[in-house]
Amino acid sequence: MASSSRRFVLLLILSVAACAHDDPRRFPLAPPVMRDQDLDPVATGCRRDANAKDGRQLVCAPEDYESSFSWDAVDNTIFRPLSKFFQADAASEAKNVNAFDEVPDSSWFVNRIGAHPMSPEEAARGYCPEGPELAANPSDGSWLIDRGKDNGANPGFRVAVGGTKFMFKTDDDQIERATAATAIASRLYYAAGWWAPCDAVVYFKRSALRLTPQLTVKANVGPARPFDEAALERVLARTGRRGDLDRATASRWLPGRPLGPFTYEGKRADDPSDVIDHEDRRDLRGARVIAAWLNHFDSREQNTMSTWMPVDPKNPRSTGHVRHWYIDLGDCFGSEWTVDGFSRRHGYSYVLDFGAIAEDFATLGLVERPWDRATRTPGAEIFGYFTAAHFDPDRWRGEYPNPAFMRMTEHDAAWAARIIARFTPEHVSAAVHVGDFTNPEHERFLVRVLLERQRLLLLRYFSKLSPLTDLSADGTRLCAVDLARQTEVFSANAFRYSASVRRGRGSRSDARIDVEGNGRVCVALGARDLRSLPDDAPDRYVVISIANGTGSGPLVVHAYDLGPMRGIRLVGMDRHFPDLAGAP
Fold first, then answer.
1. DSSP-assigned letter for residue 381
2. Domain annotation covers residue 445
3. Structure confidence by residue, pLDDT tens digits, 416-470
4. Could you give phi then psi for residue 517, rounded to 5 degrees?
5. Residue 574: helix, strand or coil by DSSP?
6. Which one, of 490, 488, 486, lies nearest residue 464 by Cα?
């Protein structure tokens, strides 16, 4: 009897497994997640604010985090790789991805140009409000310096103007590059979807500045020192000028309570909404692609910021959420260091690159490196070695290893590339124009190089995973936009479109595909009378596979056919590698 019961249970299990295997429905009939819950307000622990003058002010927010530049560099260059050496730590796919292979809006990333039309004027505005930020001709002493800039490569100070604070950052020996880069890169990061501050190039009379008495500043290392007239003179001595006006980038102070940098690995224990390890976030992994585009090699945690965004700023016990920012982007577009050998390597090699050292040792240094061929462009020397020549997206390197960048997969990179593809020449030109270069050729040079580096990025990342996106469907057609064809990174004769459709448990059949203008392609689905079936019935499930013929794998779309009145309901999509092209 017991034996018969066991056989019955086994047969039942096998029957259920067979039915499950036969069920074509990979995705349920449900909309994708478009908004992350980390934007919802949460309560955190409360404590006395150690920074308050009386020491008794209450603060209810996550703890402040102070990042050590030296330790972060040493840890990620030496100790972290050693600790991971004996671990089975193969990079899996990112965790914050929805059924449409996209990243939901969150406290880290908001879909902007990748999801909605954006004009060049909007791209040029970035996070800045409309209208002028600072008076064009301020009266003498009206801009109060209340703080020196205590870290980062570019010197500066904080200015209080009418209740609003700005961090002023000046140029180094590459006159106008750093100030322009900060303003331009912040526009491109913000338009793409990351949080970046309102940075604007300003010219001002030195007499407009007024120092707070007994002001001090503490740098990355060493004791605090006075920030007086002599210190201010040193900051302004090398910056750009137009006539008697000094040039700087005015970075509007971020909203919320500053908490210090975010990390590229792990989670904040004191943020209830921080539930995904940072190295497993697609928005942080994929940030490697935009960093490579702009050569933001100094993409370390110290050049980020987290802020506590309370629902009610006047209530110290208010709930809120943590927002994550990219700041201090002044290294973009060819920053140079004092040692020329390091400057040549930016974007090609880590500062301490054990792989390159081993290769040099094995080959006796006879192998020519890209940085050996690096040259400055005549007429554009302020951009150092920044160029599109020798740019290889796969081999791009930051200053030192970044835990999230190191775990970037092909899917993460393709996601970022689809966003970067949305930047038209008009968008790029508008963003570069805010750099306010004195020499118009510098603006033209930077636009040319950015567009060529963009082309190389898209050529690389659109060659494997499908660049089709912007899906829409009605009762008889499924349409998509082929970003590879829209951006013209491949020749016109490289495209060979094909499509197939599988309904329910049936077999796949070829489908007609119509090629329209502006990269749009549409697949004919036909019509079926399914009125007697429930909305989520297996026979309503449709799988559409579309390939564009440029060598990339297909886009596989999952949907439910709800009939001619309600049309096709899209529920999921996969981008397959070429060797999985035959997969449904």
1. G
2. yes
3. 999 999 999 999 999 999 999 999 999 999 999 999 999 999 999 999 999 999 9
4. -75, 165
5. strand
6. 490
Q: What is the DSSP letter of 578?
A: G
**Whether residues 423 and 513 fall in one domain:** no
Strand partners, 514: 522
Q: Are residues 134 and 39 in the same domain?
A: yes
Is 19 domain-assigned? no
**Is the CB of residue 552 less than 8 Å from the CB of residue 482?**
no
Q: How many Cβ atoms from other residues are within 10 Å of residue 582's Cβ?
A: 11
Residue 451, H or E segment: helix 440-461
**pLDDT, mean over the chain:** 90
pLDDT at 12 over 60: no
Q: Identify residue 360 by its one-letter amino acid code.
A: D
Pairing of strands 209-211, 241-242: unpaired
Beta-carbon-side half-sphere exposure of residue 369 (alpha carbons within 13 Å): 20
Q: What is the pLDDT of residues 21-65, one digit of tens each?
A: 589 999 999 999 999 999 999 999 898 887 766 667 888 999 999
pLDDT tens per residue, range 309-365? 999 999 999 999 999 999 999 999 999 999 999 999 999 998 887 777 777 778 777
Burial of 205 (0-12, 13-18, 19+ CB in 10 A): middle
**Same structural domain, 65 and 154:** yes
Q: b or e along 129-147 (b: 16 or more beta carbons within 10 Å of the residue's beta carbon)? A: eeeeebeeebeeeebebeb
178 and 101 belong to one structural domain: yes
Q: Are residues 207 and 278 in the same domain?
A: yes
Same domain, 412 and 472: no
When divided into structural domains, the chain yields a total of: 2
Specify whether 122 is located in the same domain as 76.
Answer: yes
Residue 26 domain-assigned? no
- pTM of the entire predicted model: 0.92
Q: How far is CA 287 from CA 107, 189, 283, 416, 419, in A?
A: 15, 9, 6, 7, 11
Q: Are residues 496 and 368 in the same domain?
A: no
Domain for residue 430, yes or no?
Answer: yes
Cα–Cα distance measured from residue 316 to residue 314, given in angstroms and rounded to the nearest whole number? 6
Q: How many CB atoms lie within 10 A of CB 152?
A: 19
Q: Mark which of 428, 461, 494 sits at the end of a domain.
A: 461
Q: Which domain holds residue 565?
A: 468-580
For residue 133 the two structure tokens come to 């930020």
